[in-house]
TrEMBL record, chains A, B:
The keyword Nuclease applies. NCBIfam families: PRK03298.1. Keywords: Cytoplasm, DNA-binding, Endonuclease, Hydrolase, Nuclease. Residues 2-104 form the Endonuclease NucS N-terminal PH-like domain. It holds the Pfam family NucS_N. Cleaves both 3' and 5' ssDNA extremities of branched DNA structures. HAMAP family: NucS. The lineage of its organism: Bacteria, Bacillati, Actinomycetota, Actinomycetes, Kineosporiales. Its EC number is 3.1.-.-. It comes from Kineosporia corallincola. This is Endonuclease NucS. Belongs to the NucS endonuclease family.
Length: 231, 231
DNA sequence: ACTTCGATTTCGCTA
DNA sequence: TAGCGAAGTCGAAGT
């Protein structure tokens, strides 16, 4: 990985065109040829970048560029598309190279898959005496997160999200429409379960007779731990 | 901005828990206290990070950590939430500090807003003798991108996307349902316009009587340039 | 290989 | 300021 701190301007031409005026920035050149342009603020997203695979070519500025103070021109060309990033370097303040090797990668825990697993084990959170039929219950248009039965044996399709937005309601609606055409399943009720449900999504869901349930992740995980400790 | 190349392991605890095993990585500390952990590959997203505002505290390892080779422990605490990033540093290969100043920011061109503006000026692309009624036509559930009239005076709602996917069809369907309840507007036809329309989205749209139109951005921009040159 | 869907998404606009 | 849609989204999992 090569790290360069430089006063530069940057132009991107590809799926859109974008321009960065002259300023001091970090240029990160990775082993796969990708280039990231970072400022000293914002979040993890660079101001501008080129995705791998790409090829970095360093050249001399043309006459008119040299006149305005450009000392070096970087051309980062995408290997697959005709996207291109041009960096006009006016002054280099730092330049260093480092061998990092391949990264072993990130280990995650606590995303939607985990929520689904926990709720499948704790179906009673949805109602007293309810039971799980299947996780990832397949329909013609895709899998429903959970299919459960209420205390009186009625089918309920559950859509689980970390953050409940309007598209999740649409998704569940499509499943319910389809499942209610199946005489073996019908009637099927719907539940939209999430750690957080946006007001618009809640209104749409309830307007369609879909119940909304807020999931407390910490509580569910805690209960899970307790259950595991008992065994 | 502080740049550190170090052999380290990283743990994140917050909205989820995540772990990075021991390896060589770049640690970027920005002026706002945010920290980015980058490897020498992947895309512009770091392996792990802490969003601003955050506070970095450097401490000594406890006894057990020191035994396994940790020489320094970084604790990055989010200022707003209880998210926390812990970096166990085993060896520092590089450490430098750089003054970058505030960045003037990015200038963009060619996104959905631009597409909408261009199509509003070139309504004839949708049909001979068509005319624009309004951009961002407000309804109770949100603004329709374009409301236009066809050659015979019939209303048409247009949803514009850069990439046409299924959720855009759902969105337009909701608008059409609502608008067709208004006797002053009804009947309202629908058009789904995008630079690219996914097959599933096309099938769903056409099944609902929504016409699909592919927009050629370069051609539209070119035509726009030509028109501007004439004035 | 292609498609679909989630994300510690982040970003930007609007009400 | 909160909410909502878009992104040069990226990335992983399943088909």
């Amino acid at each position: 990985m090569r790290l360069v701190i430089a006063r530069c301007s940057v132009d991107y031409a590809g799926r859109l065109t974008a321009h960065l005026p002259l300023a001091n920035r970090l240029l990160m050149v990775k082993a796969d040829g990708s280039v990231l342009v970072h400022s000293d603020g914002g979040s993890y997203k660079p101001l501008n970048w080129m995705s791998p695979p790409a090829k970095l070519t360093v050249g001399a500025p043309d006459e008119s560029a040299a006149e305005v103070g450009v000392v070096e021109v970087w051309t980062v060309q995408s290997a697959k598309t005709d996207d291109r990033l041009i960096v006009n370097i006016h002054e280099v303040m730092h330049d260093s190279n480092h061998e990092l090797g391949v990264d072993p990668g990130l280990v995650k825990d606590g995303v939607e898959a985990h929520l689904q697993k926990l709720l499948a084990e704790q179906v009673n959170r949805l109602g007293e005496g309810w039971s799980l039929v299947r996780r990832e219950y397949m329909t013609a248009i895709g899998p429903v997160d959970l299919l459960v039965k209420d205390a009186s044996g009625g089918s309920v399709a559950v859509e689980i999200k970390r953050r409940g937005e309007i598209d999740g309601v649409e998704q569940l609606t499509r499943y319910l429409e389809l499942m209610n055409r199946d005489p073996l399943l019908s009637p099927v009720a719907g539940i939209y379960a999430a750690q957080e449900i946006k007001p618009q999504a809640r209104v749409l869901a309830e307007d369609r007779g879909i119940r909304c349930v807020i999931l407390d992740y910490d509580e569910m995980r805690g209960l899970d731990d307790v259950e595991h400790r008992l065994f």
